[in-house]
Amino acid sequence: MISSIWSFFLEYGKLATQKSNCRPFQSLMFLIRDWSYPWEHEYGSEGGEKFLENNVFSEKKHPQFAKVRDHIHSFFEEMRCYLMPHPGLTVACSADFKGGIQDINSDFQQHICELVKLILSPQNLKIKKINGEVITCKEFITYFQSYTKLYNGDDLPNATTVLEATVQASSMSTVNRCVQLYNEKMDTFCDRHDSYVGPTAFEELHAEFLNDALSYYDSSKKLGQEDSVSSYRTELEEKINTKYEEYKTKNEARKALCNTRTPIVLATALVVTYILSALFNMLWLYPISNIFTYCCLFSLLGILTWCWVQFTGGHSYVGEVLDNVTKSIWEDILLCICQQVFTKINFLPTRAEVPLP
């Protein structure tokens, strides 16, 4: 069983190195149990390193395994070895052993603690990589699910099948990263410009962010043949175009809001400033009346400009400026006034609360 697993890893490593210049595996630890020669190599990682150098990787010993040694060096970024002592005769031979710590050899207890720290301590944990690219937790789940489907059977799958699963998971992870990049840029732009964007400008924005996502895909390290890479690139374009339709729908919904809010705010400002201008003019407060007259003219100019933008369909940046200005007036002035009015109304006693004479 061990030889078949080892042969499987070697075969997978050969196939993976043919498709990529990166080493397919990150770390390999040889854990040798029941080490009985501590006078030659002491227990632990230091003795294990010397054991590897003198017995496994030495070219003077076992020349028939020279190819295997070369493959191991080229397939793994790091190799370690740990020599574990025997847990004791009570553990190995006694039928009454129930797992009590006092029955386990003290050397074994010491080195099992050291081994756990060596494997799981934060400074020794390595960021997982596939094809030289760091993978996220979400991508790790994708790989885990792909491999779980392959290893559900009783027999080991062949190395080619596992490599194909790795290629598929790696390509899908790259595609998802590119789609996420597109979404982040679109979300950032839409949050910064909370107003309707004209169709021409919106398509130019989509084309720019699409090119950024495709450039990121082309520059990423990829496994697989050229036809596989191009097929996933086509899938990436389809996913981004689907996302574009979603953002386009949101932009059209924002257009309906702006088409009602902007003219309402401008018309309200026109009427209010006209009335205030006439009122102060009747009270002979001409300087204040002139201020409201100018505000009235600016409101009228804004309405005419908004109608011109809506009629021509161009100069979307002018419409964005109007939308942003009216949004500020709506949120900072009109809504505050309405809140104050309704607050005072709530404080007024109702008819039932007025005491009868």
What would you say this structure looks like, in words?
- The chain has helices at residues 2-19, 45-56, 66-75, 89-93, 106-120, 137-150, 159-192, 199-219, 226-282, 286-312, 316-347; strands at 25-32, 76-83, 129-130, 133-134.
- The protein contains eleven helices and four strands, in the order αβααβααββαααααα.
- It has 357 residues and is mainly alpha-helical.
- A two-stranded parallel ribbon has the order 1-2.
Key structural traits:
two-stranded parallel ribbon; 11 helices; disordered C terminus
Strand order of the largest sheet: 1-2
Main beta sheet strand tally, sense and closure: 2 strands, parallel
Helical residue percent? 55-70%
Q: Flag low-confidence runs.
A: 350-357
Tell me, briefly, the overall form: elongated
Q: Number of helix segments? A: 11
pLDDT averaged residue by residue: 77
Helical/strand content category: mainly alpha
Task: Please tell me how large the radius of gyration is.
Answer: 36 Å
Number of DSSP-assigned strands: 4
Ends distance: 101 Å
Could you state the order of secondary-structure elements as H and E?
HEHHEHHEEHHHHHH
Report the β-strand fraction as a percent range: 5-15%
Describe the structure in brief.
The chain is mostly helical.
Topology, pairings included?
Layout: H1 2-19, E1 25-32, H2 45-56, H3 66-75, E2 76-83, H4 89-93, H5 106-120, E3 129-130, E4 133-134, H6 137-150, H7 159-192, H8 199-219, H9 226-282, H10 286-312, H11 316-347
Parallel strand pairs: 1-2
Antiparallel strand pairs: 3-4
